[in-house]
User: What shape does this take?
Amino acid sequence: MNDIDAWVWWLVGAAALGIPLVVTAMPEFGMLAVGAVAAGVVAGLGFDAVIQVLAFVVVSVALIAVVRPIAARHGRQRPQLATGIDALKGKQAVVLERVDGSGGRIKLAGEIWSARALDTGRAYEAGQEVDVVDIEGATAIVI
Assistant: This one.
């Protein structure tokens, strides 16, 4: 084992860190693997073991400290493309049957929906255009 260069061991360590990355989907293992690759490069350049370990620690900690918060911030962002009922909010619809506080029918995105007015004292007659402000179950709330 003494005849195997240190850089090979670092690359084996990087590959070994890739296994739990794939199995657990924890990106921290990937960052540690990149640190091991950096230590392998340092070992390949002929630096001693202390510098190799220092390169591993510095690169790994730097990646975890910088990349992890960025990834977490991106994970919390809502998608910019609204889908499902979220895509219908804010759309215009045409009243098919009178819509008031108790109900009615509209044509929204090519489909017929039950609807009711947000303002219970207001009524919209057939042919009027209304704006969808919310969806509650299968009922569009309009103004």
Summary: The chain has three helices and five strands. The longest helix spans residues 49-76.
